[in-house]
């Protein structure tokens, strides 16, 4: 062993300690994945070297045969992985292996419940990576040297996976990383050629560079142990270059775990080769679960970009729109130059046409999933529905396609689950219904019982119930679907078109006429609080309702704007009353102007409360109501 200098002991970042603890205690039923994770890292390191060497061939230091070697020592109970990739400097080893750089990690850790079963699912959202070594090892030694650095600038990182790790500067002749796992007692089954070979075949066959194991040579008694011969155990070709028909589902799944740093299988994938004016291959995956940082601005997004099989960059975000940021995978282009940069990608017209083709591929894949595997699609929607709702605003060209993928809760049951698609809604619409009706609000419980739905319930018309924060904003970008326009049932003067019979309409007109006097009295009583007063034809049970003006902002949008500190234009509601309601009849017959005023204001405030709004002057409401109650009881 060479001399170690500048030895120091450093503590792991708190989050690393938590992750280590969780990993060791929750992944015991699937220990062998440590090898997959370490091989995946080694492969990434080789990809990085290959790319950097394009502009700096000296980094290869004469050794251009890139590979990963896995060996073991039964007596010493060790498993060793060695790659000749980019390697790490001392500083890099300290940061990469001592901290977690992902933004939002601390928040994520707060979600851990301590319940190992639940938490082991969470870890899937997070990815496991290097620290999975500690599932099977009670000590891990990492020897590394960054390509291009002097042999004397190697680093030895060592840890028992407890609170801290040691680093020292060492001599390392070859570039790259060697990881030595000192197996825990009881885990020595991994120091075995057959076992390692099987694990590699199972999880890492798709890795594009050779993974070598020592050839098993029977020792001949009396003879000296022969020099180690190595043999490649994986297929060692880029998976996406192979024809679709030759790739097994399991291979697609394992490859996904490698590119996405995910722990679970993907929900779906789409593998394509494009030839002609542009030439590229793409392999796109829909993850099964939203990553913990889906809504963080700086969170990683985008595809892995290769140019003619050479890895060029991670998270190339120019190939997909932002609302598809959860898609993982690779794109391998024959047209781009190897020294392409993020800045160039943003301007290149080739990228634009690739982006629209890839976007379409993803949307097609989702359509297929929705059609063929509705249960899977439900789960997709639960995880990514909110992000998909950003689509219509961002991607005008695909608005109709995206709209077809949206799912909503509706008055048709399912307790608020977002499962109704627009095509399904229209397929079961009433005869003569040429609109798509929806209602937005704060919570499902609130909209479900909204008085705005009374007439729809009576007529048996389905209404979509939209309660996500983003919904009102989303609807401002959707005007129609399949030729049918969207109608907010809380907005404007509800016109049910063909759904109202001629008699209904006539009767409504007559009632309206007979109540003109009451309308005028109410206008005077409510004064400034309302934009308009009118007879309602959407109520059956409630006495009154507040409708939003055709052009006014709804409650959600107002709240979003207010929360972001913007000035929100004042808008007044329209007061609609139900002429058939006993309270309204009472009001109509009220002689005292004072009592008429009190009762009108109470009805107005109640309508606001039923809409989930807050009262401007709650004390006045209580005072008026109590006054009436006292009068009632004498
Ligand atoms: P992730 O791979 O998700 O970033 P890991 O915990 O697996 O997280 O690894 C942390 C970092 O350590 C990697 O991003 C990489 O920079 C570095 N690293 C890990 N293994 C190697 C290796 N074999 N060669 C070079 N760098 C490595």
Which helices and strands appear, and what pairs or packs with what?
Blueprint: E1 5-11, H1 14-26, H2 33-55, E2 68-73, E3 78-83, H3 90-98, H4 105-110, H5 116-126, H6 133-136, E4 137-145, E5 154-159, E6 164-170, E7 176-183, H7 193-204, E8 211-214, E9 230-232, H8 249-260, E10 268-274, E11 280-286, E12 303-307, E13 310-316, E14 328-333, H9 342-347, H10 349-372, H11 374-388, H12 391-394, H13 399-405, E15 409-410, H14 422-427, E16 435-440, H15 444-448, H16 454-459, E17 464-466, H17 471-475, E18 480-481, E19 484-488, H18 502-514, H19 516-526, E20 532-535, E21 544-547, H20 555-563, E22 574-577, H21 582-588, H22 593-610, H23 618-633
Parallel strand pairs: 2-8, 12-14, 16-17, 16-19, 20-22
Antiparallel strand pairs: 1-6, 2-3, 3-7, 4-5, 4-7, 5-6, 8-9, 10-11, 11-14, 12-13, 15-17, 18-19, 21-22
Helix pairs in contact: 1-5, 2-7, 10-11, 10-13, 22-23
Number of helices: 23
Q: How many β-strand runs?
A: 22
CATH superfamily of the largest domain: Histidine kinase-like ATPase, C-terminal domain
pLDDT averaged residue by residue: 91
Strand order of the largest sheet: 1-6-5-4-7-3-2-8-9
As for the CATH topology of the largest domain, it is: Heat Shock Protein 90
Q: Spans of 5+ residues with little confidence (pLDDT < 50)?
A: none
Describe the protein's architecture and organization.
A hairpin with an 8-residue loop joins strand 4 (137-145) and strand 5 (154-159). Helix 1 (14-26) crosses helix 5 and helix 10 (349-372) crosses helix 11 (374-388). The chain is elongated. The protein contains 23 helices and 22 strands. The chain folds into four domains: 5-237, 2-Layer Sandwich (Heat Shock Protein 90), CATH 3.30.565; 240-379, Ribosomal Protein S5, domain 2; 392-499, Rossmann fold; 502-633, Four Helix Bundle (Hemerythrin (Met), subunit A). The model has no long low-confidence stretch (mean pLDDT 91). 38% of the residues lie in helices and 19% in strands. The chain has a nine-stranded mixed beta sheet with strand order 1-6-5-4-7-3-2-8-9. A five-stranded mixed beta sheet has the order 10-11-14-12-13, with helices on both faces. The protein has 634 residues and is α+β, with helices and mostly antiparallel strands. Adenosine-5'-diphosphate binds next to helix 2 and helix 3. The site of adenosine-5'-diphosphate (ADP) has 16 residues, from helix 2 and helix 3.
């Amino acid at each position: 062993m060479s001399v170690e200098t500048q030895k120091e002991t450093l503590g792991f970042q708190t989050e690393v300690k938590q992750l280590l603890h969780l990993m060791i205690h929750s992944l015991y039923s699937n220990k062998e994945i440590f090898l997959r994770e370490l091989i995946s890292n080694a492969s990434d390191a080789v990809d990085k070297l290959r790319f950097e060497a394009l502009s700096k061939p000296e980094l290869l230091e004469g050794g251009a045969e890139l590979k990963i070697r896995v060996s073991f020592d039964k007596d010493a109970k060790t498993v060793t992985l060695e790659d000749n990739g980019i390697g790490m400097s001392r500083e890099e080893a300290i940061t990469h292996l001592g901290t977690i750089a992902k933004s939002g990690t601390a928040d994520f850790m707060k979600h851990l419940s301590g319940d190992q079963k639940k938490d082991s699912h969470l870890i899937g959202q997070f990815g496991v990576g290097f620290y999975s070594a500690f599932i099977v090892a009670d000590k891990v030694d990492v020897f590394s040297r960054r390509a291009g650095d002097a042999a004397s600038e190697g680093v030895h990182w060592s840890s028992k996976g407890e609170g801290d790790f040691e680093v020292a500067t060492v001599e390392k002749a070859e570039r790259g990383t060697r990881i030595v796992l000192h197996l825990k007692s009881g885990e020595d089954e991994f120091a075995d050629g057959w076992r390692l070979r099987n694990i590699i075949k199972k999880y890492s066959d798709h890795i594009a560079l050779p993974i070598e194991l020592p050839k098993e040579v029977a020792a001949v008694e009396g003879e000296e142990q022969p020099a180690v011969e190595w043999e490649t155990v994986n297929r060692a070709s880029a998976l996406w270059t192979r024809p679709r028909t030759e790739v097994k589902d399991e291979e697609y799944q394992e490859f996904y775990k490698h590119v996405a740093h995910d722990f679970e299988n993907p929900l779906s994938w789409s593998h394509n080769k494009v030839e002609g004016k542009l030439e590229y291959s793409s392999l796109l995956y829909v993850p099964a679960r939203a990553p913990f940082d889906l809504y963080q601005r700086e969170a990683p997004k985008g595809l892995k970009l290769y140019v003619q099989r050479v890895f060029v960059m991670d998270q190339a975000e120019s190939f997909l729109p932002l609302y598809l940021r959860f898609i993982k995978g690779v794109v391998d282009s024959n047209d781009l130059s190897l020294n392409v940069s993020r800045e160039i990608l943003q301007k290149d017209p080739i990228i634009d046409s690739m982006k629209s083709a890839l976007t379409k591929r993803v949307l097609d894949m989702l359509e297929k999933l929705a059609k063929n595997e509705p249960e899977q699609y439900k789960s997709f929607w639960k995880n990514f529905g909110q992000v998909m709702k950003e689509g219509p605003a961002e991607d005008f060209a695909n608005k109709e396609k995206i709209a077809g993928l949206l799912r909503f809760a509706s008055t048709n049951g399912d307790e608020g689950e977002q499962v109704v698609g627009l095509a399904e809604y229209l397929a079961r619409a009433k005869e003569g219904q040429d609109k798509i009706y929806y209602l937005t609000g704060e919570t499902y419980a609130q909209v479900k019982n909204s008085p705005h739905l009374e007439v729809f319930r009576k007529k048996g018309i389905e209404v979509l119930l939209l309660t996500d924060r983003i919904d009102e904003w989303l609807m401002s970008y959707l005007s129609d679907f399949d030729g049918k326009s969207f109608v907010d049932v809380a907005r404007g003067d509800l016109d049910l078109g063909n759904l109202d019979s001629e008699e209904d309409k006539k009767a409504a007109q007559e009632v309206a006429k007979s109540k003109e006097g009451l309308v005028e009295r109410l206008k005077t009583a409510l004064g400034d609080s309302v934009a308009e007063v009118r007879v309602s034809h959407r109520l059956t049970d409630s006495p009154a309702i507040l409708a939003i003006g055709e052009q006014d902002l709804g409650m959600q949008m107002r709240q979003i704007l207010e929360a972001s500190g913007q000035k929100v234009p004042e808008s007044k509601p329209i007061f609609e009353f139900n002429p058939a309601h006993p309270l309204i009849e009472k009001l109509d017959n009220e002689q005292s102007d004072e009592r008429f005023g009190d009762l009108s204001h109470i009805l107005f405030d109640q309508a606001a409360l039923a809409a989930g709004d807050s009262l401007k002057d709650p004390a006045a409401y209580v005072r008026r109501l109590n006054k009436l109650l006292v009068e009632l009881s004498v």
